[in-house]
Automatic annotation (TrEMBL):
<feature type="compositionally biased region" description="Basic and acidic residues">
    <location>
        <begin position="77"/>
        <end position="91"/>
    </location>
</feature>
<protein>
    <recommendedName>
        <fullName>SHSP domain-containing protein</fullName>
    </recommendedName>
</protein>
<dbReference type="InterPro" id="IPR008978">
    <property type="entry name" value="HSP20-like_chaperone"/>
</dbReference>
<feature type="region of interest" description="Disordered">
    <location>
        <begin position="77"/>
        <end position="98"/>
    </location>
</feature>
<dbReference type="InterPro" id="IPR031107">
    <property type="entry name" value="Small_HSP"/>
</dbReference>
<feature type="domain" description="SHSP">
    <location>
        <begin position="1"/>
        <end position="95"/>
    </location>
</feature>
<comment type="similarity">
    <text>Belongs to the small heat shock protein (HSP20) family.</text>
</comment>
<dbReference type="InterPro" id="IPR002068">
    <property type="entry name" value="A-crystallin/Hsp20_dom"/>
</dbReference>
<dbReference type="Pfam" id="PF00011">
    <property type="entry name" value="HSP20"/>
</dbReference>
Amino acid sequence: MVRCELAGIDPQDVDVRITDQGVTIRGERKAEEVDRQRGTYRSERFYGAFSRTVSFPVPVDSERAQATFRHGLLEVRAPKRNPDAGPDGRRLNITPLQ
């Protein structure tokens, strides 16, 4: 399992790709709305693109992998791969949870 904190990022702005050897998470934090009250300006977030690749300690079955997103936390789950299965890879759809 891989967990990634992505608070403030829309799941639609995240791309998750998985192979039997690892997972790559890419996305972009869009500009937040500016808070201007009583002559003050506040902006405390990092903006821009990000990418992170995590290698698995053992091969996984990417066909059975799932990605969920809840309260700013992306979670990717993938069971161990059957040793008889060939290598594979795919893009995961992210399921937003309530």
